[in-house]
Structure formats: C-alpha cells, structure tokens
Amino acid sequence: xxxxxxxxxxxxVGVDFPTQHGPMRVLDDVSFDVRDGEFVSIIxxxxxxxxxxxxxxxxxxxxxxxxxxxxxxxxxAPGPDRGVIFQEYGVFPWLTVRQNIEFGLKLAAGRVPAAxxxxxxQRYMGLMGLSDFAxxxxxxxxxxxxxxxxxxxxxxxxxxxLLMDEPFGALDAQTRSAxxxxxxxxxxxxxxTVILITHSVEEAIYLSxxxxxxxxxxxxxxxxxxxxxxxxxAENVHEDPRFGEMRAHIRDLVMQxxxxxxxxxxxxxx
Length: 270
Ligand SMILES: Nc1ncnc2c1ncn2[C@@H]1O[C@H](COP(=O)(O)OP(=O)(O)OP(=O)(O)O)[C@@H](O)[C@H]1O
Description:
single chain; Rossmann fold; 270 residues; alpha/beta; 2 domains; binds adenosine-5'-triphosphate; six-stranded mixed beta sheet; four-stranded antiparallel beta sheet; 24% strand
C-alpha cells in the first residue's frame, strides 16, 4: 500500500469562510496523501472542518490556500469518478427508490451498459433491503432507509473513489454493523480508494487502513495513525488487544480536541 500511487494529495490546504466578523479559518495547512486502495478515515470534533475537507475533494469547495490534487491534477469540479455520500444530499426526493439508483447509472452511461442497469438496480436494492420499496419516494422512507438508498446509489455506479461523510450515522447499531461489512465486501471485490468522515472511533479502526485525527477548528492534522490490521477484515479484530489500545488512544486525542473546540465556542459567545 505504501508504494501504491498517490491518488489524492492535500498540499498545505487552507480554507477561510466569510462571516459577519470577518473571515473564519476552517482548515489550516492540511497536507497528506491518500494512496490507491487506501481507506482513510478522518475523525475530529464536530464543526472543526471535516466536511469542508471532503467538499474540496468532491469539487464543491475551492481552497483559499494550497491545493488538492486528484491523480496529479487540481480538483476544480465534481465528477463521476467520485461517489459522494453526504448525509443530507444523498437522494433526490422527486425520484422513487428505483429511479434514484437508475439516475446515477444513466449519468455513468459509458461505464454501465443499459442492459446491465436493471440487474444492477435489483442487486443494490436487494443488498440494501430496499426491494419492497422500489416505487416509494424518499419522504415515505425512514432516515435509515434513505441513507441506505444513498449508499446504493453511490455503490451502483462503481466509482473509483468513495467520499463518505458520516454515511452510517442515521442507522441503528445492527444495520450500521451490516453496512460496514457490506462496504468492506464491496471494497474487497472492486478495490476503491475511500475517504470516510466518522464520529465513531470503533468504526474508523474497524474499516480503515489509516486514521487522520484533526484538531479543533481550524482543522489541522493532529496525528495520522496506521491501523495494523489487513484486509479482508473480520469482525473478530474488535477483540484484538491492539484494537482496544488504539481505541483508548484515539478517544483520548479526540476528547482533547472536543474540549479545545468547546473552549472556543465559549470564547465566541462571550
Ligand atoms: N459554505 C460555508 N460558508 C460559511 N461557513 C461554512 C460553510 N461551510 C461550512 N462552514 C462553517 O465551517 C465550519 C466547519 O464546518 P464543517 O461542516 O466542515 O465541519 P465538520 O467538522 O464536518 O462538522 P460535523 O462533524 O458537525 O459535521 C462550521 O463552523 C461551519 O458552520
């Protein structure tokens, strides 16, 4: 993995957003690489700038300083090579479950022949437990089902990159665990490069090859941790003593950053 080509490169990335009180720095001097086939999780306090980091790779936000390269070229727009799963923007409310999954496939027409589309739609509806809801609109689905639909849409297109922002946040514990295993399964078969934002330390360790811990806002890299478990990864890594040690260490770092962020919020409201 360490010798695989670099696919995503953050080079001294900074972002300032305008506010009533002047520019607010959200990212500061963020530099790291993501290599082909890596699974990198980003973890840090709420509101520190993680989604903004992801939005730059997605092509939705331009950095104020530095740059992000995708396969050596600066990212300037979204593209079908990047499957994006954001909590809020995952599904089109005016399309049914089936149509939502089909939509992405039609956009990626070059890569998914028409004859295969119906089969692909059926397959992902089945995998996500949505087959009985094929003709339902998202507003008639639960939050968890909508999230599974967003996952189905992204996976069906088989993008090279998956950019996932808390993709399992609205799911109950059982479904979350099933969706984590399904993701590992999809990666094992299709080999993708993944960036995942999560608030769950356990999820980050269970899924990732590396974990980037970021600081309170403005997000900087606090540390990058190599996960010592290979793939395919089995449920029983949870019982490995190294898993527990790593969880305690990362929780400690994240709690320190949450405390720093909370102090900032108090100062802002003074
Ligand atoms: N387009 C924007 N314009 C102005 N401010 C923004 C914009 N996008 C995000 N922000 C602000 O930047 C800060 C970081 O937001 P971001 O969504 O990146 O954080 P986050 O770490 O992903 O948070 P969470 O974990 O709660 O999802 C927040 O204070 C947010 O209000």
